[in-house]
Amino acid sequence: MNPPRDKLALLNWLAIYPLITLLLWVARPHLGTLALPLQTLLLTAVLVPTMTFVVMPRLTWIFRGWLLRGPQAAPSRAQEV
What predicted TM-score, i.e. pTM, was given to this entire model? Predict the structure, then answer.
């Protein structure tokens, strides 16, 4: 069973935001003289493998219960009696 795309999108955003913030904080002083496209190229060259091989496998494992949980079925009348 595959997790819903909206949950994966939220999990990606929750991972990317702090990671890109950290990368910009660390790298910006060193990349400031480079053209913006080159800065973006270098940052994404670090971000994408880090997300793919380090961050997302851990987050999907941590949030596996939430990712795979389906909508809760309402109890039927027969179960209530």
Answer: 0.72
Q: What angle do CA 14, 19, 24 make, to 5 degrees?
A: 135
Q: At what angle do helices 36-50 and 5-31 cross, to 10 degrees?
A: 130
Tokens, residue 30: 């060193």
Q: Is 63 helix (H, G, I), strand (E, B) or coil?
A: coil
Q: Token pair of 74, please?
A: 């309402």
For the segment 47-81, what is each residue's pLDDT rounded down to a tens digit?
Answer: 999 999 999 999 999 999 999 987 654 455 555 54
Residue 51: C-alpha distances to residues 12, 32, 36, 63, 79 (Å):
8, 24, 22, 15, 45
CA–CA separation, 72 and 7 (whole Å): 16
